[in-house]
Amino acid sequence: MLLEALRLRKAFGGLCAVDEVDFAVEAGSITGIIGPNGAGKTTFFNLISRALPVTSGRIMFDGEDVTNLQPHHIARRGVARTFQATTLFGDATALENVLVGYRQRTSSGVWDALVRSARLAREEHEAHAVAHETLAFVGLTDSAERLARDLTQEQQKRLAMALAIVARPRLLLLDEPSAGINADQTRGLIALVEKIAATGITVLLIEHQMQMVMHLCRRIMVLDYGKKIADGTPEEIRNDPAVLEAYLGHK
Amino acid sequence: MKYGAGAALAIAVVLPLVVPNAYYLEILTQAYVFAISACGLNVILGFAGQLSLAHAGFFGIGAYTVALLATKAGVTFWAGVPAGIALSAVIGFVVGSICLRSKGHYFAIFTMAVGLIINLIIQKWESLTHGHVGVIGIPGPGAIGPIHFESGIARSYLALVCLALTLVATTRLLRSPVGRTMVAVRESEPLAAAIGLDVMAAKRLAFTISAALAGLAGGLYAGFIGFLGPESSNIEMTFNTLLYVMVGGIGSVVGPVAGTFIVYGLSQVLQVLQHYQMVIFGLALVLLILFMPKGLAGVFRRPSTQPTPLAESASLRAGSSKKGDK
Ligand SMILES: Nc1ncnc2c1ncn2[C@@H]1O[C@H](COP(=O)(O)OP(=O)(O)OP(=O)(O)O)[C@@H](O)[C@H]1O
Ligand SMILES: [Mg+2]
User: Fold this and answer.
1) Separation between Cα atoms, residue A216 and residue A189, nearest integer Å
2) What is the ipTM of this complex?
3) Final residue of a domain: which of A167, A182, A204?
4) pLDDT tens for residues A175-188?
5) Are residues A134 and A203 in the same domain?
6) How far apart are the CA of B52 and the nearest CA of chain A, in angstroms?
7) Tens digit of pLDDT for each residue in B257-314?
8) CB–CB contact A180 B178 (8 Å)
9) Nearest atom within ligand 1 for CA of residue A35
10) Ligand 1 pocket: which residues have CB below 6 Å?
11) Alpha carbon separation from B25 to B67, B86, B151, B274 (Å, rounded)
12) Strand order in the sheet with A79-81
């Protein structure tokens, strides 16, 4: 198992946003997380990406306990993420966004910058090559020099994915990649997620759009009020009474 | 941009030769020195996005290091300035490590307190600093081979060279991965951390560099003026520097230099302004923040092709709250 959550719990005061969730993600898979609004899906991501401290429980990544790592440490170990409200460096170009995403792979420092060392030149060359390659991969070659905030919603989502995968993570957490875009664009994004998974990156995605989840995922976990209420194949989830109950009950 | 930089350099080189008298030459030299300090503040405030109000404290550390080493231990200006830079940087690193645990307004208040403490130490440690009397008779830069620095013009060029080096260094920094990391931290800490950037390390580095540049400016100041009092490190000095950076443009490399020339230049040339300095500057600062948050440099920034910056992420949030009705 690439990722394991063991009795993972997160409480905000009296509210238990993630409640004793046990869950494992198999390497090389595309796995989905669904659940009604406020079920704790984003909080679950925030715990795994270490953006929030856990209340109790453990997180294992690639067999190692990463429960208490800092966000940039877990990122460097290979866990990348996108944010629910597409988060980019708006005043920077698409290329600059992806370049800074590659920074964790390079090591030049202040002195390299001041004396313009050979190492800096080599790393910059490498970073630009990888950045352009990644922009091409997500279909943004023509937008490389445009400011991130000037891109369309769909392009911003593609850029957010480029930023997340440019450093070649092992696990990619996608928080509602299809939110706010139309059906056509969603199809394009589904194709992109499949393409990313095909390169060997394990994908864990939160998604409200059922077609997308059912189409992409071999396994799905359902959260409701912080608790895991189901975990199985799309078939099993579709026919699970607890899931139907949760969704209908919330209407 | 290239031509702009060339023109500015040409003007800067000619200026010391054409100013009408020694008084104006001294003001020009000081403007170069304060511009270095403003460039330093810009590294922490403009690049990394953290409002440090301890800046004049580091200016004072650089200045007093040069002054005290020279008057008490006979250390030359040329050795004193690097010592001042080093001491400012080391204290900056330690102070940064502590203050940067707090964020936003808390960081600003925390650093303001640090600035006040440094100023108080300078004022009260009379046996070392002579308190309010200050240090007098600080020797200026001695000759290097055939080049002498007694004349105002020579000192002006020395300050200009230091400013030029500062600009080259900050430009290279900003355009390097190190600078891009600082800007990423300024724009979004959660995103910066999520892409594997050490947010704390980036801020601490920016703070240390900013302190080092303030130390450089302070050291030059002490050697050029020849006497030094605790006012050189007070909060007013910090706010003046802040105003230079804000007028010129936060985050742009040359903005702080332009801001220093405009604000410091005006305040010295128009004597009337001096009496109402803080009133006018306070008002100017408020107006700036309201109407021109990116300063002069903001006016010349690369324009956005669409008028609404990241407005879509707002509609995104609205979109995601709607899907409950699925
Ligand atoms: N930082 C926080 N502080 C306090 N409460 C929080 C915080 N983050 C989330 N919550 C609460 O935790 C619960 C779960 O929120 P979360 O954002 O994880 O839900 P979600 O499943 O992602 O919902 P959505 O589908 O709307 O994105 C909600 O009740 C939310 O209000
Ligand atoms: Mg969410």
Assistant:
1) 11
2) 0.93
3) A167
4) 999 888 888 899 99
5) no
6) 21
7) 888 888 888 877 766 666 776 777 777 777 777 776 666 665 555 444 443 334 333 3
8) no
9) 21
10) A 12, 15, 17, 35, 37-43, 84; B 320
11) 22, 29, 10, 19
12) A79-81, A171-175, A202-206, A30-34, A219-224, A227-232
Q: How many domains are contained in chain A?
A: 2
Question: A208-214 — which CB contacts under 8 Å span 24+ positions?
Answer: A208/A34, A208/A176, A208/A178, A208/A179, A208/B320, A208/B323, A208/B326, A209/A178, A209/B323, A210/A34, A210/B326, A212/A177, A212/A178, A212/A186, A213/A32, A213/A34, A214/A238
Query: Which residue segment(s) compose the domain that A141 sits in?
Result: 93-167
> Do A175 and A223 share a domain, yes or no?
yes
pLDDT of residue B199: 96
> Do A135 and A213 belong to one domain?
no
Name the domain boundary from A112, A135, A167: A167
Q: Is A88 within the bounds of a domain?
A: no
Where are chain B's structural domains? 21-233
Are B196 and A72 within 8 A, CB to CB?
yes
pLDDT of residue B255: 87
Which of ligand 1's atoms lies nearest the C-alpha of A41? 21
Q: Which residue has a Cα nearest atom 28 of ligand 1?
A: A38
Domain shared by A40 and A112, yes or no: no
Same domain, A182 and A135: no
Report the residue of chain B nearest A71, measured CA to CA.
B193
Q: A29 and A18 in one domain?
A: yes
CATH code, domain with A32: 3.40.50.300
